[in-house]
Design goal:
Diverse_CBS-Domain; three-stranded antiparallel β-sheet; alpha+beta
């Protein structure tokens, strides 16, 4: 099996010009835990913001500035300050064994799938593997 067999195509992305507040609201409204970050100028992949990283940033802001300042701090914190810088990414033909090893070794919850021009065409998450496991188990029984 390959990445293209389980990836979520055309995932919800966010611009690198957005704020942490924008990301927070987008994650809540769309029910996603990972947001690939794309350059506002050319749409190329810049990084990823995970729910875990966003929550850690929000908790840090509350601890540092107090709950009353959270909304203001989120609005003025650029995504670029909290996103994870590009590291590993995938192509559609990558074998799933490579992805599994990466998730295990790096305790990562997602990997973006990029085309040759570094544009996001999909995302693979740990949830995609849970869905795959369910499908395979159902085929057995």
């Amino acid at each position: 099996m390959q990445v293209k067999d389980i990836m979520t195509a055309n995932p919800i992305c966010i611009s690198d010009g957005a704020s942490l507040r924008d990301a927070h609201l987008l994650m809540q409204s769309r029910g996603v835990r990972h947001l690939p970050v794309i350059a506002e100028s050319d749409g190329r992949y810049r990084g990823v913001l995970t729910h875990k990283k966003m929550i850690a940033s929000v908790v840090s802001m509350i601890n540092r500035y107090g709950a009353g300042a959270l909304d203001r701090k989120e609005r003025f914190t650029p995504i670029a300050e909290v996103m994870e810088i590009p590291g590993q990414h995938l192509g559609t033909d990558e074998p799933l064994t490579v992805v599994v090893d990466y998730f295990i070794d790096n305790k990562s919850g997602c990997l973006p799938v990029l085309d040759a021009d570094m544009r996001v065409i999909g995302i693979v998450t740990s949830s995609d593997f849970v869905k795959l496991a369910k499908r395979l188990l159902q085929q057995q029984g």
